[in-house]
Design goal:
Blueprint: E1 3-7, H1 11-22, E2 26-31, H2 37-45, E3 50-52, H3 57-60, E4 65-68, H4 77-84, E5 89-91, H5 92-97, E6 103-108, H6 113-125, E7 131-135, H7 141-147, E8 152-156, H8 159-162, E9 172-175, H9 190-197, E10 209-213, H10 217-225, E11 231-236, E12 245-247, E13 251-256, E14 259-264, H11 273-289, H12 293-301, E15 311-316, E16 319-323, H13 330-339, E17 344-348, H14 361-367, E18 368-374, H15 379-385, E19 392-395, H16 398-408, E20 414-417, H17 430-448
Parallel strand pairs: 1-2, 1-4, 2-3, 4-5, 6-8, 6-9, 7-8, 9-10, 10-11, 11-12, 16-20, 17-18, 17-20, 18-19
Antiparallel strand pairs: 12-13, 13-14, 15-16
Helix pairs in contact: 1-7, 6-11, 16-17
Subcellular location: Cytoplasm
Enzyme class: ligase
Protein name: UDP-N-acetylmuramoylalanine--D-glutamate ligase
């Protein structure tokens, strides 16, 4: 019996372990940290041997193949040891792809991939297709493949999940954008990070489709220097009429392969330029699957995005509150500021990720009437914006941040939490920050009644 070692016992590791066991492999799971109770119970119930708090190398290196969690970098000693012994190291996505019977729609990009994944899934579900949602959005692809019965898999892929994928092939691959992120994993080279993102198109033939953002500088740079397989389907907003997918007013125009379609977007609740790109990509995938334009149009109107992504969370005295806690980098905030047409009171701050705020200066000058800094160290934000937005205050309390923002705002204004920073100075994660903001808005609503 062939032995497989699985490193990491989170969602992807346990999903891979259960699938490997079902396919007849001798499975051993090793996690150098502690295993969450939920996953420990699943492994115990399946009688899969596991360890936590250590890596027993003789057990791991006895395997013919190793599946690693996306969180483990290739430079980790346990991985380096495997490679020195010529033991193949693959991702959970690679392993699951070997056994999947349905078509793969795979979505990546630095920003927007969760929204695009959820929207694509929603569009396919709206016509009753048997479709699974998997990957970086929350559930393991291996687990969904083990469930079986799906004709389509809509899979969100981070660059870490794309790494260690070799034979895997998407039927429809989507690349939304490439901006600097996680460069420590890629030798601080944008070229390496871009190459990881372009793995979404690997192994394609003319029968598979690669949808990509024509307006993105890094995507264009990579395409100019590399042959990329698959049938190219460029989408963009820059008005080129020869684009496969473009916008025209409140509609998306698609003209590629055998598809000629116009899909109205006026019913969509998504706001901002970045969401126009996300919607073009999702609509393109839906058209390729064969969904009628009128059906797509109707389904756009019933879509609810994931929490913490330009999510309306309340209104007080004519002031709208929007939770965009997931905007942890400057580019995501740029799209938020650009997409909101009303005057903005901006709640910003957290753990700085080496931000350069220069791209935001014009938008802040034009749209932001006041800034509330919610963070431990706000010096960089103050230095960047105090000259162009003199109404600037600091707090480390989310309830006070919401009160201050409401005081600055007038009816018709928007209070926008779009932090541009990680959350770890005051919160456990961006979800905790977003929930805390939402709860603070609800509490202030109750006082206003």
């Amino acid at each position: 019996m062939q032995k497989i070692a699985i490193l990491g016992a989170g969602e992807s590791g346990v999903g891979a372990a259960l699938l490997a066991q079902a396919k007849g492999f001798d499975v051993f799971v090793s996690d150098q940290g502690s295993i969450a109770e939920k996953y420990r119970a699943q492994l115990t119930r399946a009688q899969i041997p596991f360890e936590e708090g250590t890596h027993t190398l003789e057990q791991i290196y006895a395997a013919q193949e190793i599946i690693k969690s996306p969180g483990i970098p290739d430079k980790a000693p346990v991985i380096q040891g495997a490679l020195e012994r010529n033991i193949p190291v693959i991702s959970e996505i690679e392993f699951a792809g070997r056994y999947a019977k349905g078509k793969m729609i795979c979505i990546t990009g630095t920003n927007g991939k969760t929204t695009t994944t959820l929207l694509t899934y929603h569009l396919l579900k709206s016509v009753g297709l048997k479709v699974a949602l998997a990957g970086n959005v929350g559930e393991s692809l291996a687990g969904k493949v083990l469930e079986g019965g799906y004709d389509y898999y809509v899979v969100e892929l981070s660059s870490f999940q794309l790494d260690n994928m070799y034979q895997f092939k998407a039927d429809i691959g989507i690349l939304l954008n490439i901006t600097p992120d996680h460069l420590d994993r890629y030798g601080y080279q944008m070229e390496n990070y871009a190459a990881a993102k372009f793995r979404v198109a690997q192994n394609m033939t003319a029968g598979e489709y690669f949808l990509f953002n024509q307006d993105d500088t890094e995507i264009q740079k990579y395409l100019a220097a590399h042959e990329v397989p698959g049938t190219p389907v460029p989408f963009g907003l820059k008005g080129e009429e020869n684009l496969a997918i473009r916008t025209e007013g409140k509609a998306i125009i698609a003209s590629f392969s055998q598809i000629r379609a116009k899909v109205g977007t006026s019913k969509s609740p998504l706001i901002g330029q970045h969401n126009q790109y996300n919607t073009m990509a999702a609509v393109g995938a839906a058209l390729l699957v064969g969904i009628e334009p009128a059906t797509i149009e109707a389904a756009l109107g019933s879509f609810q995005n994931a929490e913490h992504r330009l999510q309306p969370v309340g209104e007080i005295d004519g002031v709208r509150f929007i939770n965009d806690s997931k905007a942890t980098n400057v580019e995501a905030v740029w799209y938020a500021l650009d997409g909101i047409k009303a005057p903005i009171v901006w709640v910003v701050g957290g753990t700085d990720k080496g931000n350069d705020y220069t791209p935001l200066l014009l938008l802040v000058k034009e749209k932001v009437k006041a800034i509330v800094c919610l963070g431990v160290d706000n010096s960089k934000i103050i230095a960047s914006f105090s000259d162009i937005c003199p109404k600037l205050v600091e707090t480390q309390d989310v309830n006070e941040a919401v009160r201050l923002a409401k005081d600055f705002a007038e009816p018709g204004d928007v209070v926008l939490l779009s932090p541009a920073c990680a959350s770890f100075d005051l919160f456990k994660n961006y979800e905790h920050r977003g929930r805390s903001f939402t709860e603070a808005v609800a509490a202030l609503q109750q006082k206003a009644i």
